[in-house]
User: Fold these one by one.
Assistant:
Number 1:
Amino acid sequence: MKRHSTDVVLVPASGTNGIVLTMDESGLTQQPKKPKLNEERDAVGRNIKCLHNLPEEILRYILSLLPTKDAIRTSVLCKRWEYLWTSIPNLNFSGLEPDKRKQFMNFVERVLLLRDSSDIKTFTLSCDVLRDASHVSAWISAAVRRNVQQLCIYLYNFRKPFSLPHSLFTCMTLTELELAMPCILKLPPTICFTNLKTLNFSYVTFTKEHSTEKLFSGLPVLEELELQNCNWVNLKVVSISAPKLLSIRIVEDWENQNDENGCQVMISGVSLNYFRYCGEFCNEYHVHNSPSLVEASVLASWYNERKRQIAHRMYMLLTGFSGVKELTLVFCAVE
């Protein structure tokens, strides 16, 4: 009768490898069992090899999904990865920790200095300006020179007057701009955002009527505008006119206003279909020449000491909504 071979597995003691005993016609033969750890290492090695063999464009895309610091850390993996980070399209710098101020400054300087000449898609900067206004301005200029498309700037704690680089206001590649800086925005004589589609200002103070008017009339393709707690100081009238403007959102807080009289803000957009206001009517808003308006909402706070002023300004705003299809008012606004 033919004898079949049989495998007998001996369970290893702690810390040892398993042994397979095979019984056949010649008797017992010992075969070492391949450790599971080695299999895992082999799998990791194969994955690393596959990742290493990917085209550089895909590797750069993978790096672009990582935080900037983590993307730069990959330079120690191997020779091929050493300089991949110098062309990642997205850069994000955040330095709001006082005890790490010097480290943050050196890090940003080094990244921008070693970066190659490739374009930047998204550049985000959040930091205190303090006495380093010239450095901060130079960083923004570096992003503009590399044809930045999306620029998000959040600046705090100014110790001296700060001016954004003039090149920012004529950047032809910029499609999205978000600017939060609780100080006066100094505007250059030439302003033209030829490709800007989204604009968000937060805590920005406008003081020059002519330059402010020039800013909001130099937006030929703007589609979305958001104004959060912005101040119009010493300005009587400001016009916002963008032929392709689709949406506008305004948020106001009386505590953040520097001018008690406020300003008349005239909004004209033939393509405007969404309008939202939330605040205390620190300024007077008028919407006109907007036949495409579909949805509008007004969330107004009500204060007895200003109720007549608020009521008047709300009435002036509502008169521009004659053709709106859907209008939402909070209870106090109805009252």
Number 2:
Amino acid sequence: MKPAMETAAEENAEQSQEKKGCFECCIKCLGGVPYASLVATILCFSGVALFCGCGHVALTGTVSILEQHFSTTPTDHALLSEVIQLMQYVIYGIASFFFLYGIILLAEGFYTTSAVKELHGEFKTTACGRCISGMFVFLTYVLGVAWLGVFGFSAVPVFMFYNIWSTCEVIKSYQANVTVPGDQICVDIRQYGIIPWNAVPGRACGPILENICNTNEFYMSYHLFIVACAGAGATVIALIHFLMILSSNWAYLKDASKMQAYQDIKAKEEQELQDIQSRSKEQLNSYT
């Protein structure tokens, strides 16, 4: 029967080995996490969420401002209302697509990271996997170029609202100077082409324009368009980040496939050499 001290020592050794194995397993799992893809996914989700959410609310506020102050006749802005409604539906589609696409790219990052980590082990890569990685590189490049256009388009309403806001600031400064009337300072929305030239009233001047700038709808729409533009910019950065990651992973997989082919050829040659040596020994033994 073993002494109590030896039994306790063995139990402590087994417990320390289990703890060490759990620690090594955790380190191995953390080492397989694609942190670059994870950061790019979070940035992409955040950018798309800001662009879609803020853009949707800002477009609704813009229609309300136009209907109340610049185009009182519904037929004058009917086309604009339909276009804005269509853009809101497109926003729903963009949000759904990028939610799915971001998860796919993150999963692809997990696959390629674990594959590269096991390059010197039993790593196996297929031509289909390399083809899928190359397809993601091309698709992400196309989406990045498209989002550059979205980013530029989202800056247009920011520019328009900034012009209106800056005009209101000029009116306020002119009101401090009694000799200069502020009623002559106007903003004509019709010159931007979003409503026809026969829209009534089509423009706002002086105190009326200042009151428009002081409304909650104008304030919220202006700042929401700024945030939406920033979200589009963040999405562009995320897609560029994804493009760099995918290109790097594709190169790693391509090199890994070459290394795998080299190791297979080397193993085959070694096996053939061993077979030749074994046959030579058998023939030598038969002669002797």
Number 3:
Amino acid sequence: MRLEEEFSHCDEEEQPEMMSQCSIGALQQLQQKVVVVGYALTSKKIKSFLQPTFEGLARNKGILFVAIDQNKPLSDQGPFDIVLHKLTGKEWRQILEDYRQTHPEVTVLDPPDAIQHLHNRQSMLQCVSDMNLSNSYGKVAGLILPLVAKPLVADGSAKSHELSLAYDQYSLQKLEPPLVLQEFVNHGGVLFKVYIVGEAIKVVRRFSLPDVTKRELSKIKGVFRFPRVSCAAASADDADLDPSVAELPPRPLLERLAKELRRRLGLRLFNLDIIREHGTRDHFYVIDINYFPGYGKMPGYEHIFTDFFLSLVQSRSRNDRARNLLKA
């Protein structure tokens, strides 16, 4: 359609070479509007994220996904407008960092050094603690049994998602360090997954560990291990929940958390796991932060991401024009 509009500016009586020039100019303009997203993802992430409906919508909006060949130098590929990645390893991080230095015109989602903060649960949650929002999301001091034990390293592997529930202090000796300990808080068996894509925020409910009664605490001893609590099959959005449990965290709180964490972490693609202390309306706990989570499970992610990619390119274009004006 745009091509036909460009042709309408050419006089029908013009010479063929003039028509050729006009058509070439139209094609060049169309090519310039294509946003090329190079991706370096695991096969599992490709399957869950680059779904046919998403690729089709992106193509209709002028966004093209191109696989990055890890066996070739990154600088020899492209050109890219955006590089989307979720691979691990020091070698890959160095490749990306070098690429960022030599190709400042490309947006890398996200900087590898920034992602490293989320690979350690202690430094990850310290960012939230430093925000001093205890009146808004809960208290972090004075741990009381039972305790949730999570691996210190959060590298996206199956093992890093395992957690244990320790009901007594003697059972803590059975756990394998390094670990992060969190006080278990009754939360109605529901957690809130807060997905963040740039400035967009989307919240879904997921089933979580059930509440623990005082009677159970007096009788149960030892350690209970859970391979992975949050998964696609555990969606609670359509469940018949108590309204006090189902009520989403207040939007202003989520917006403040997202804004501050984007700034502190230097990331634009992540999610928060948040729980509400059962029996309260405003006691919330941030229990985990994940980089580039399973967005394929987020309703409407296709539209959110296409809008996000386009906004990144438009923002960079505006910034480039502003710099050129200053130089003129």
